[in-house]
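Quick question, first post here. What does this chain look like in 3D?
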Amino acid sequence: MSEMTGSGTGLSRRMRSLARWETLLLVALLGLIVLGNRLSPFFLTPGNFSNLLAALMEVAIMALPLTLIIILGEIDLSVESMAGLASAALGFMWAAGVPLPVAIPIVLVIGAVGGLLNGLLVARGGLPSLVVTLGTLALFRGMALIILGPRGVSNFPEAFTALGFGDVPGTVIPWPFVIFLALALILGIVLHRTWIGRQTYAIGKNAGTARFSGVRVTRLRTSMFVLSGTIAALAGVILTSRLSSARADAGSGMTITAVTVVLLGGANIFGGSGTIPGTVLAVLTVAVMQNALRLANVSVEVQSIALGLLLILSVVIPSFVRQARNGLDRVRRGRHQATDAIAGG
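> Answer (accepted):
Ran it through. Tokens below.
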């Protein structure tokens, strides 16, 4: 009987391992790589690898703090307009003669202030984050248009544009990917190895219970929105560098992709679950999919449909996976109870 129990437990563990969302994402990523290689002989070339990574890095960087916010049970839809505001402010200051080493920190402070506004309205004002960040989505974009207008600024120094457009010397790895990995490592440690992460999950699962347990819910929520605004501003700086141009409409349309990436990474839209490794794998999956479709000369309209379907699937499939995990847990508990009953009899 003990052998049967051990065998059943081992099978249950293997099934749970296979059911992990990150494992499914890794399989999907490998499948897309094989498909991309069949669609185009240029897919696995070093140059295309560099382009594949660089094309989605601003979205990927914004998706990292957005993962923490969604785990909290909130949402930040203003990230794309904050990136645009950061780009506009950077271009305005550079055109006015402000050195970039001075302008960039100011831009990051602007991002932090914008995030603080979101955080105060949501955490202290008790307003829905969906409504608040929809409002600031328009507010930040309007401010960007006031600062820079329809014109663009493009006379940035080569040392700055190399940040977004250049590769690490001797490799085909773009610098923004290095920044993304560094942020993913830092936020991954914070989320999965510190009390901040534990409290973030607790708030997402039940904010009331977390508050009664001594968690400073308001402060943590506000801090996460400040983090999101700051990193969105950083993404705007990187986007300006990569395009060698500062524009008020920079970042348009990135929010939907960022949310898709986070949800595809396994975060629960209602809060309480999600991982940084899952978001990283989702970033690579979306990047490979979009790159393969472009190399196959698929129209922009079809690419948009594919992204929309991916967003829907990223909500539906994790729900089924969670249900499967719960089912496996119930089966395991039933086997243990049956074993205990037999042993007691």
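The chain is about 80% helix and 0% strand.
The chain has one domain: 2-344.
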